Amino acid sequence: MYQPSVSHFPRLSVDELRIDAISHEDVTRVVQYFQRNRDFLAPWEPERAAGFYTEQGWKRRVLQLMELQKHQLAYYFLIAKQDSPQVLGVISYTSIMQYPSHSCTVGYSLDEAAQGQGIMRRALAATNQWLFDNVHIHRVCASYMPCNQRSAKVLEAVGFEHEGRARDYLLINGQWEDHLLMAHINPHWRPKPA
User: Fold this and answer.
1) Can you point out the beta strands (E) in 1-63?
2) Per residue in 34-52, pLDDT tens?
3) Can you say whether the dihedral through the CA atoms of 11, 117, 81, 112 is positive or negative?
4) Nearest Cα to 156, choosing from 183, 133, 129?
5) First vs last Cα of the chain: how many Å apart?
6) pLDDT by residue (tens digit) across 130-179?
7) Residues 6+ apart with CB under 8 A from 88
8) Domain named N-acetyltransferase: which ranges (predicted)?
9) Is the distance from CB of 30 to CB of 80 less than 8 angstroms?
10) How far is CA 162 from CA 43, 105, 148, 153, 159, in A?
11) Which residues lie closer than 8 Å to 80 by C-beta, 6 or more apart?
């Protein structure tokens, strides 16, 4: 289904999709993605400082993300079609912990025009599997607002299971929002040999 890479800057391929860890060359593309989807994503995301929508802001952010990727502390993936530079979505893995939890948290967003095509489902399945295979992750945690049924369907389709509800969990668009908590467990995880 996907082609793994052992690089700290992986490049995955799923069907017609290209899923690459962010790098210096991607600044303009990711800024265009967030500018284009600013209003569409606002109900689901934290309030953003003005610099979030600028190339200068993303140049700094990409440097930080690349450093985190180099040390396997976080990964930030961009989703695009094989034949197009336009970013269709992003997937971020943060709070990557090794022993004893071997876990991380995932967040994602998808372009308004790319909704309903199975893009996030396929991309998330591939990036989760890459983390399981290459970063020795046992548990990927996710959360979504109860009203976001599209996100619920994506997570369930990829193998996430419900674990509970967190009250006032994240400050989204200026308001504390409850979130439903889910996790995807790596069924093939084994301790690394000593």
Assistant:
1) 11-14, 17-21
2) 999 999 999 999 999 989 9
3) negative
4) 183
5) 31
6) 999 999 999 999 999 999 999 999 999 999 999 999 999 999 999 999 99
7) 17, 33, 79, 80, 81, 110, 111, 114, 119
8) 17-187
9) no
10) 22, 14, 14, 12, 10
11) 17, 18, 20, 29, 86, 87, 88
Question: Would the pTM count as exceeding 0.85?
Answer: yes
177-182 long-range Cβ contacts below 8 angstroms, 24+ apart: 177/145, 178/145, 178/146, 179/143, 179/144, 179/145, 179/146, 180/143, 180/144, 180/145, 180/146, 180/152, 181/141, 181/142, 181/143, 182/141, 182/142, 182/143, 182/144, 182/155
Q: Do the bridges between strand 175-185 and strand 139-144 make them parallel or antiparallel, or are there none, so unpaired?
A: antiparallel
- The full length of the chain comes to 194
Q: Which two tokens stand for residue 149?
A: 């049924």
Please, are residues 27 and 56 in contact by the beta-carbon 8 Å criterion? no
Pick from 141, 66, 64: which is nearest to 104 by CA?
141
25-63 burial string, b = 16+ CB within 10 Å, else e? ebbeebbebbeebeeebeebbeeeeeebeeeebbeebbe
Q: Which secondary structure element, helix H or strand E, spans residue 173, and what is its range?
A: none
DSSP class of 51: G
Place of tokens 């269709």: 88
- Cα–Cα distance between 22 and 25 in angstroms, integer? 8
DSSP state of 193: P
Side-chain-side CA neighbours of 138 within 13 Å: the count stands at: 11
